[in-house]
Each structure stands twice: as structure tokens, then as C-alpha cells.
Amino acid sequence: MPSVIRALAPLCAAVVLLAVACSGGDGDDGSPSQGPTVVETPSTATGCSPARAAQPGDSVITTTSGGVERTYVLHVPPLYDGAEPVPLVLVLHGFSLTGSFMSGYTLFGEEGDGEGFISVFPNGLGEPQRWNTDKTVDQADDVAFLRDLIAKLQSDLCIDSDRIFAAGYSNGGGMAQRLACEAPDTIAAIGTVAATYVECRAPVPWIGFHGTADPLVPFEGGPRPAEAGGGEFYPARRALSEWAREVGCDGLGQISRLSGDVELTTYVRCTLGDGEVLLYTILAGGHTWPGAYDLPVETVGTTSKQIDATKTMWEFFSAHAGTR
User: Fold this and answer.
1) Of the CATH numbers 1.10.3720.10, 1.20.120.1460, 2.30.110.10, 3.40.50.1820, which one belongs to the domain with range 2-318?
2) If you count Cβ atoms within 10 Å of the first and of the last residue's Cβ in the chain, which end, N or C, has fewer?
3) Could you tell me if 192 and 165 are in contact, meaning their C-beta atoms sit under 8 angstroms apart?
4) Is the previous residue joined to 50 through a cis bond, with omega within 30 degrees of 0?
5) Pairing mode, if any, of strands 68-76 and 57-65?
6) H-assigned helices in the chain
7) Cα separation of 123 and 127, whole Å?
8) DSSP element (H, E) containing 242
9) Pairing outcome for strands 262-266 and 254-259
10) pLDDT per residue over 52-88, tens digit each?
């Protein structure tokens, strides 16, 4: 675990930068004991001929976007045959972290092995690495990069265009939200952990997880440092509520307790059925991925083991194929 601590050290040392960017182990039973009723929409994808074969497992690949070299980790499940279209999940790392870290932290690759989807873990730019959620002029156009990456993967692999999803942690969660706002025709649903970003909204289903004791992106919001541009962090409930209205749901969610430290807010009367926007509140939870291994408590707070964010996100994603 020392490498994890080293990776997180710059995250906390550069909390001001994180503020700008983020504004922008299984549980006991692996999933919540109850959840919303979601209307499932089937995909309309057809097969690929000729087949687009790929080696199963992890590959580190370099590509070019906007004249800049970019890298990503690609994970292909063992039963992928190149002929049957499969879902794609983009998994975006947090501030100062990497795609490789996210692969080991979230275990989306292992989830994809069982569920039959391809996962990709792209890398941001900068030192430390981060996502340009605010599209700052002198930084990379990460929306363009992720669009280019999706197009490349659709060309190289047999991807179901109705089932392309984006998941993100912290700064990467903000990037997933920004991508949904600018590419709602491409992204079928998003999932985030420890991230709120309400400067944009999109008619795209969103499942969010946020700890009430998050020391970096406070659950209840609060002032941003002047060095980060001032203003306010938005409360998590407000962020999801405003997004829910954009999706066509009631802005006032219904709250239920799923376990000792997990509450679920469901936004109802949505266009396609309840459950298009969900907020899992982790009581006393930190800036951590629920269900993952523990990170240093003194740095980011506690990690819930009573819900698995990766499995729960995938359940949400799999119910939202082609809902754009």
C-alpha cells in the first residue's frame, strides 16, 4: 500500500487545485438490500462483421488527440469475441492519480470479466495528472480527447453505441459530468464518487456516491479558497437534485436507509421510470470509493464496506442502455 499513499500525498498537498477540479474488497453482501425500480431499455445494436478481435486482459495503449500523445489502460473481458457488441465503461481517475490506480482501486475490469463489458482507464495530463473539467484555455481539451478515445475504441472493437458509460472519482467524476453535458448523444449514463459539478446539466442518467465526512469535497458544500477562484462548493443533494430536474424527474428525492451507513435518495416520476438519478449518501464516509480497499483514514477518511460502488454502478448502467 505505500504506492497508494505516495499517489495520494500530492492530492492532499494540492487541495486548492483539487477544489477547482472537483467543482467541476466487497461489502457485506456486495450490493444494497433494496433499490429503486428502473425501467430497463434494450439495446438496438447489431453485430460486427468482420469481427474486431482483441487480446483479453490489460493493455497500455498510446494514442494522439489534438496533436498530443495520450495514454490509457484497456481491459478486455475473456469472453469478448469481436462480433457481438459489448458495453464500454470509461473510468476516470481523481486528481494526482492514474488510470492504472483506478483499475486496481475500483476493480471495474474484474466486474467486466463477469458482466461482459470492456473498461478503459484513461490518463489525464499535467504534473500531477488531472482532468481539465473547466476547459481552461491553456490546458488540454479533455472532452475532445475522450470523444476521440471513444471513436477509436468503436473503430478498433465491437462496441455497443447504446451502452457507453462514464464513471469517475473526484476530479474524474467532474470530468464524467462535463463529458455527459457535452456529449449527451454518446454517453448513456454516468456514475460518480466524491464529485459534484453543477455548472452544467444534461438529460443523462446519473448515479452518485458521496460521503458526509468527505474532507476534500464537503457533502454540505461550503466556500472555496480564494486561490481556487472563490465561490462555493455545491452540496451533493443540490447537485443531484438540479440534475434530476434536467432529466425530467421531481427535484425532491425520496430518502430510504439501506444499511447502517448508506442512505439512498431516489428521484421519482422520471421520464423513463424512477431511478434515473440516484444519490447514495455514505454516512460518515470519506473521500473514498465505497466497497474498495481502505485508503489512509487520516488523508481521505473512512471507506464504507456496506455497499460496492462498482457493482451498484454497473447495475445502474446496465438498466440504462439507449435511454438518451
Assistant:
1) 3.40.50.1820
2) N
3) no
4) yes
5) antiparallel
6) 2-13, 15-23, 99-106, 108-115, 142-156, 171-182, 236-247, 297-300, 309-318
7) 12
8) helix 236-247
9) antiparallel
10) 999 999 999 999 999 999 999 999 999 999 999 999 9
Which backbone phi and psi does 100 adopt, to 5 degrees?
-65, -40
Mapped onto helix, strand or coil, the DSSP state of residue 42 is: coil
Tell me how far apart the alpha carbons of residues 215 and 141 are, in angstroms, rounded to a whole number. Answer: 28
Rounded Cα gap, residues 323 and 248, in angstroms: 12
Tens digits of residue pLDDT in 96-119:
999 999 999 999 999 999 999 999
Q: How far apart are CA 255 and CA 267, in angstroms?
A: 9
Residue 65 CA: distances (Å) to CA of 140, 142, 151, 288? 10, 9, 11, 30
Per-residue pLDDT band for 36 (boundaries 50, 70, 90) equals low
Going from N- to C-terminal start, the domains of the chain cover: 2-318
Q: Quick one: three-class SS letters along 243-260?
A: HHHHHCCCCCCEEEEEEC
Averaged pLDDT, 18-44: 45
Residue 319 one-letter amino acid:
A
> How crowded is residue 251: how many other Cβ atoms within 10 Å of its Cβ?
14
Task: Give the closest residue to 219 by CA, choosing from 250, 251, 263.
Answer: 263
* pTM attached to this predicted model: 0.86
Contact between 262 and 280 (Cβ < 8 Å): yes
Distance of CA 186 to the CA centre of its chain: 15
- Residue from 7, 36, 12 nearest 22 by CA: 12
The H or E element spanning position 208 is strand 206-211
